[in-house]
Amino acid sequence: MDLAPTPIVESPTINARVGRRVLFKMECHQPPGSFKIRGMSHLMSRRAAEGMRHFVSSSGGNAGLAVAYCAAKLGLSATVVVPETTNPQVREKLASYGAEVRVSGSAWDEADQVARALCASGEAAYVSPFNDPLLWEGHASLADEAATQIERPDAVIISVGGGGLLSGLLQGMHRNGWEEVPVIAAETEGAASFAAAVAAGGPVSIERITSIATSLGARQVADQAFRWTQRHEIRSAILSDRDAIAGCLTFADHLRVLVEPACGVSLAVVEQAHPAVQGCDTLLVVVCGGAAVNASLLCQWRDQLAQAQR
Hints:
By secondary structure, the protein is an alpha/beta fold. It has helices at 12-18, 36-49, 62-74, 88-96, 108-118, 133-139, 141-149, 164-175, 193-200, 223-227, 241-255, 261-271, 295-308, and strands at residues 8-10, 21-25, 54-58, 77-82, 100-103, 125-127, 155-159, 183-188, 234-239, 282-286. Strand 7, helix 8 and strand 8 (183-188) form a beta-alpha-beta unit.
């Protein structure tokens, strides 16, 4: 499945505000709304070529939408198991692509157990939202594109949930000569499983997800994401939900796009002048996207932010 390259843009007003040059890789412009389509299209095309006709995934948002979209484009079928907390808007979008939507469990981990059980017979292919080498290969194309669009930045900022994007991005960066470019892993308080792995010396399961940034809601990162800490400079940045919402508002005001808090936190790293960006004049921010957002939600978040600042 061929995907059109996403643009890299910048905002003079944001640059002036933060005192740096900030470049934005606009993955929010992907057809289903996020970078997830890169890995999913690669994985599902490969599995389809091997004869698989039905795919099952577990996701409360972007990964599931990418699976449903790819299945529709490939003329295949898909089942997406979502937790009870999944936004009704996301469920509607999944169904609009023709996917069967099943609701099970109070969190992604429980939905994932159901998805895996549905694949036990071998008649359907299980698709992990973030933990599969084929996903990482697909996500690596983001770095391939960026390397043809811009000169090497001083750092790349991405949001980290389960670690699929991190694993793929670094794979692509290394094959494009960006081995010395630090990656800043942005997370929100209450969903910082990557930082927990770094602190523990290996992947560990955090007790629960309490952040509004539910797209970052993997309680444990993929082993591969942690292994990259042994090969590449990865700087951890943990910010508040309030910071992430402020980032969403900046995206809307200055780049005219709607993104989830899981994406807003990456821009917040720059806006808050987090220590991780110290010494970096040019930053590439991956605008990972987010389909579980609309104007009404953005207004709610804005009001929450205003109340918190009083």
